[in-house]
Amino acid sequence: MVSNFAKPVENLSVTNAMKEWLNVTEKKVAKIVLELKKLFPEARTELNFSTIFQLVIAVVLSAQSTDRQVNKVTEKLFLLVKEPKDLLDLGEEELSRQIRSLGLYRSKAKNLIKLAKILETEYQGQVPDSFSDLIKLPGIGPKTAEVILGVGFNKPSFPVDTHVFRVARRLGLSKAKTPTGVSLDLKKIFPHRYWLDLHHRFIFFGRKICKAKKPNCAICPFMEFCHKEELNV
Ligand code: SF4
Q1: Among the atoms of ligand 1, which is closest to the Cα of residue 209?
Q2: Which pLDDT value is given to residue 230?
Q3: In the prediction, which pLDDT does 14 show?
Q4: Rounded to an integer, what is the distance from CA 166 to the centroid of its chain?
Q5: How far, in Å, from the CA of 155 to the mean position of ligand 1?
Q6: 214 phi and psi, to 5 degrees?
Q7: What number does CATH give the domain 52-153?
Q8: pLDDT tier for residue 17 given thresholds of 50, 70 and 90
């Protein structure tokens, strides 16, 4: 994956409306970008894949499962499945059997088979690279679509999962109540070249330091603008 951190941080700018609404200063934006880069220089997706269709499978499987559990399952599955037609050859029953250690495996298998059929019949076996096409596919919501666009196609995207949602709100970067709303706020605050790296770094920060329960605030570089207490989250 190409890093978006090649350009100097002084070019950061926050729109005036967002600045006023959230009281987010350019100094704060720069601090978040730089400190997270320092903490997690190598942050990237932990899901294993070698084709974009495999990425789609891995992201769909990751709902309510850990990346580690998904990688364990896909290690064998991806020896057989690289493209949609391979999954159709495998069939729903065998797919269900291979992924049965994951939560919601029956509905995931059903959705993936439907999705593979649509890719074969409507997209010549290719994964589409537009948000509007992706979210029409079974099992793919806005967050999954953003992950595929960013990680798979290297397009500007800021997917918001449970960690990004919590961290963004605790850091006072959004007051939105939905992941889509938070994603829109983050896209207004940070220049797009930072989006995908920040997405990964927010996840690492949320998993390792700003945890949902018992965050490790003693080592947090952002205590000065933490809103955890007033949000009560
Ligand atoms: S001070 Fe604690 S709760 Fe606040 S952002 Fe840092 S780790 Fe999270």
Answers
A1: 7
A2: 82
A3: 54
A4: 13
A5: 30
A6: 50, 60
A7: 1.10.340.30
A8: low
Find out whether the beta carbon of 194 lies less than 6 Å from any atom of ligand 1.
no
List strand residue ranges (DSSP E) for the chain, in order: none
Average pLDDT, the chain: 90
Cα(18) to ligand 1 centroid in Å equals: 22
* Interval 89-100 mean pLDDT: 97
Quote the CA–CA distance of 165 and 179 in Å, as a whole number: 6
| pLDDT category of residue 11 using cuts at 50, 70 and 90 | very low
- The predicted pLDDT at position 3 comes to 36
Domain boundaries, the chain: 9-39+156-231, 52-153
| Per-residue pLDDT tens digits for 115-144 | 999 999 999 999 999 999 999 999 999 999
203-210: average pLDDT? 96
Reply yes or no on whether the pLDDT at 91 is more than 70: yes
**128 three-state secondary structure:** coil
Q: How far is CA 18 from CA 68, 70, 101, 112, 184, in A?
A: 37, 37, 44, 39, 11
Mutate to test the pocket of ligand 1, among 170, 207, 211, 231 (most ligand atoms within 8 A of CB): 170
CATH 3.90.25.10 fits 9-39+156-231, yes or no: no
37: annotated binding-site residue? no
161 an active-site residue?
yes
Residue nearest to atom 8 of ligand 1 (CA): 210
How many C-beta atoms surround the C-beta of residue 163 within 10 A? 19
Residue 70 beta carbon below 6 angstroms from any ligand 1 atom? no
- The radius of gyration of the chain from alpha carbons, rounded to an integer in Å, stands at 19
